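Action item from last week, closing it out:
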Amino acid sequence: MTGLLKLLVKAKESIKEDTKLALIKAGRRIIVEKGYNHTGIQEILLAVGVPKGSFYHFFSSKEEFGLAIIDYDSQMHDRIVEQYLGDTSLTPLNRIKRYFTFKLEEFETLQYREGCLFGNLSQEMADQNDPFRIRLQEAIDRWHGQFADCIQAAQDSGEISTQYSARDLAEFCLNSWEGALLQMKLAKSDAPLKNYVQFMFGVILA
């Protein structure tokens, strides 16, 4: 294969990957607001501006597309959590506080819409689709693990009581956060999130 041909093939592959990522991003944006069952493939195609054949070039079905969105969101989420919880310039407890400060600012920017893709899809799909349930559980388990590690570090440094295990605290912390996000969407207000932060850091992780 000549050098020019290699460049052309590489450029074509890059365009294909860009199209695939555009479909995933558009699908995520629509699904997180409307839900999986109320999102149509045609709506996603129109949002991206590509023909139907482009969708089925990358995804054999809507289910495969939905699973790809979960994987994409999970990867992005893992990186964000690591960015905040892995910041060793702060104490472990302050890393957690900074993460939730970031999330409050993010949802304010979104005008208290969307919520968490993991939580939204878990409510909608866990009883309907086992592959979705398993993939979501895997993503949430990693999230819990990241928080448990940081909470354990805070316990080791004396910032958080050791009365409860780090894993139990992480699960309670994040399960409660998901509930606060539901209330945020109903109220269209940050009040439930601020209430969560007040009790989580004033009582639970004190």
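Closing note: Confidence is low (pLDDT under 50) at residues 4-15.
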